[in-house]
From TrEMBL:
Domain annotation Beta-lactamase hydrolase-like protein phosphatase-like: ranges: 2-109
Source species taxonomy: Bacteria, Pseudomonadati, Pseudomonadota, Alphaproteobacteria, Hyphomicrobiales
Residues of the FAD/NAD(P)-binding domain: 151-266
Protein name: TIGR01244 family sulfur transferase
A Pfam family it matches: Pyr_redox_2
Organism, scientific name: Hoeflea prorocentri
Length: 556
């Protein structure tokens, strides 16, 4: 916990944990303001968790969530109102403390406080508010006629897609001026979280510092994006800094909407409610699975599109396999509640998966969308859609439930000129170039090409985008096409995987000879690939610009 005092009435800090409340109260704070929206980070506790712990110590709490990169004047006014009414002193927090410091600075400026005093107070606390001065001076408008910085290529996002494309560009052109924008400190190998939830991987092995992965000669702009102005070739950052580009690559991933299910945020991580889609919860999945001896286990899948469409059922298979090996499978009632109407979107793999559904005696419940959950009561409610009766709500009790949240494009993408009607970045599915803005490309989970949203897809997309950007800059001679490749290693039991590899339209695209791995059948070799080979390929090849089995297919 890193508390920074701004003055005698307010301090700011990065993300706090429920376990920090005792120490916060000990420092004399009487109130807490949360400026971080729930579900923003994979390792983030909810506001309700913080509030509950604070209330036990008599601290008042206020929730003023501010989307990363979108600090509005209205948010500053709400912050000021809270400061007027809450008992002092107040601790405000967000991911890093910057949004909270920015809100305080904007509110102070609106109240007529001297700008030098604002800058001095925040600087002493370790926060540079010079960008806010520019915003106040311009009446909240951000000028784009001049830039704070300019680069040949600007990449939005430091996830798998963003770092991979940065490394592929750097491997092809050492002289290119590249900047990568991302506020996060930690990069996660999210495909490993299914294995964490199955008791196979340790969570710590799936996390590395962002600084250790971004190529050393790529400029890392550690900030959040606020908006795009593609007509001006400009990206607006939080604090009103302007970054201009010749070419832009958009790869911020997607948003996990934990608030999309009523009651979910309040009960995550307790009451038998878990999810492998969050770093800090995947170990809880394994604790639940390994301790359950009898009862009802429910696994859910939200409407598509989602990140790694096979992950919801992977959790089921690994859990059921543990119960089978422990000799208690017949004492556990397993349900897979899928809001869709098929087990897997590529029919060639369904027979092998159905064999395991039957082996584990799991009940497939299609058309079941999780809408509400009561953790303490251990009850979940699903909207059931069928062709005869329309839709209705049904109640389902559980002893443990693995929840996959609804997923959308990030807010700053959905409201931008880059988005299609559904909110995803609008690209040509072959070249991954934006359909409207010719100097913009996108890859990874955020764009709207009809491929599976997996890390394996990003591994193939990154060289394609790198090739096409360089060709557009006059540094290449061919255009590459992405074939929609995606891979989903379906962990059907400990030691065996159904390796689904496919492209656009469900076309099978195996990367291994069938004598080694027949993707339509469970395979020990595929398990070894997932457990032993893919993690080092991810860290040491994909994120380093080494395009193992990922060379782009050029068409001219």
């Amino acid at each position: 916990m890193d508390i920074k005092n701004i003055n005698g009435t307010v301090a700011v800090s990065p993300q706090i944990q429920p376990g920090d409340i005792e120490q916060i109260a000990g420092h004399g704070f009487r109130s807490i303001i949360c400026n971080r929206p729930d579900g923003e980070g994979a390792d983030q506790p909810s506001f309700q968790e913080i509030s509950k712990a604070a209330q036990k110590r008599g601290l008042e709490c206020s929730y003023i969530p501010v989307e990363t990169g979108r600090v509005r004047d209205e948010d500053a006014a709400l912050f000021g109102s809270a400061m007027d009414t809450l008992p002092k002193p107040v601790l405000a927090y967000c991911r890093s403390g910057t949004r909270s410091a920015t809100l305080w600075s904007l509110d102070q400026g609106a109240r007529g406080a001297a700008l030098p005093s604002i800058l001095e107070a925040t600087a002493k606390a370790g926060y540079n508010m010079s960008g806010v001065v520019r915003r106040i001076a311009n009446g909240g408008r951000t000028p784009t006629d001049t830039a704070d910085t300019s680069h040949d290529v600007v990449i939005i996002g430091g996830g798998a897609a963003g770092i991979a494309v940065a490394s592929s560009l750097r491997a092809r052109s050492s002289d290119l001026d590249i900047a990568l924008i991302d506020p996060a400190d930690i990069h996660y190998y999210q495909p490993g979280w299914t294995m964490v939830g199955g008791g196979i991987f340790d969570a710590a092995t799936t996390a590395k510092t962002m600084a250790s992965l971004i190529p050393h000669d790529v400029h890392w702009i550690k900030a959040a994006v606020s908006a795009f102005e593609p007509a001006n070739d400009a990206v607006i950052l939080d604090g009103c800094h302007v970054v201009k580009y010749k070419r832009l690559i958009v790869a911020p991933g997607l948003k996990l909407d934990w608030n999309g299910v009523d009651g979910l945020v309040e009960t995550l991580g307790k009451n038998g409610v878990t999810s492998n889609y969050r770093y800090d919860l995947a170990p809880y999945t394994w604790r639940l699975v390994s301790s359950l001896r009898s009862g009802r286990a429910v696994f859910t899948q939200p409407p598509m599109p989602i990140k790694c469409a096979g992950a919801p059922q992977k959790a089921l298979y690994l859990s059921a396999d543990h119960w089978r090996r422990s000799g208690i499978l017949d004492k556990i009632d397993i349900s897979f509640c899928n809001s869709g109407n098929v087990l897997f979107g590529v029919k060639d793999y369904v027979p092998a998966l159905m064999d395991y559904v039957e082996l584990y005696n799991a009940h497939l419940k299609f058309g079941h969308r999780l809408v509400r959950i009561d953790g303490p009561a251990k009850k979940a409610w699903f909207e059931l859609t069928d062709g005869e009766d329309g839709s209705r709500e049904i109640e389902m009790p559980f002893d443990m439930i693995h929840v996959v949240p609804p997923q959308t494009a990030p807010d700053f993408i959905r409201v931008s000129p880059l988005a299609d009607e559904a909110g995803w970045v609008d690209v040509d599915q072959n070249t991954l170039r934006h359909k409207t803005f010719e100097n913009i490309w996108s890859l990874g989970d955020v764009m709207n090409a009809p491929n599976a949203k997996t890390a394996a897809a990003a591994r193939k997309q990154a060289p394609t985008v790198a090739n096409n950007v360089l060709t557009d800059l006059g540094l290449g001679s061919s255009i590459a096409h992405y074939d929609g490749y995606g891979s989903c290693p379906l962990t059907v039991e400990r030691g065996k995987i159904v390796l689904a590899e496919f492209g656009y339209g469900g076309k099978l695209l195996p990367s291994m000879p069938t004598w080694l791995i027949n993707g339509k059948k469970p395979s020990r070799a595929a398990w070894l690939l997932k457990e032993k080979i893919l993690p080092p390929i991810y860290w040491r090849a994909m994120l380093r610009g080494k395009e193992w089995l990922a060379k782009p297919e050029t068409v001219g």
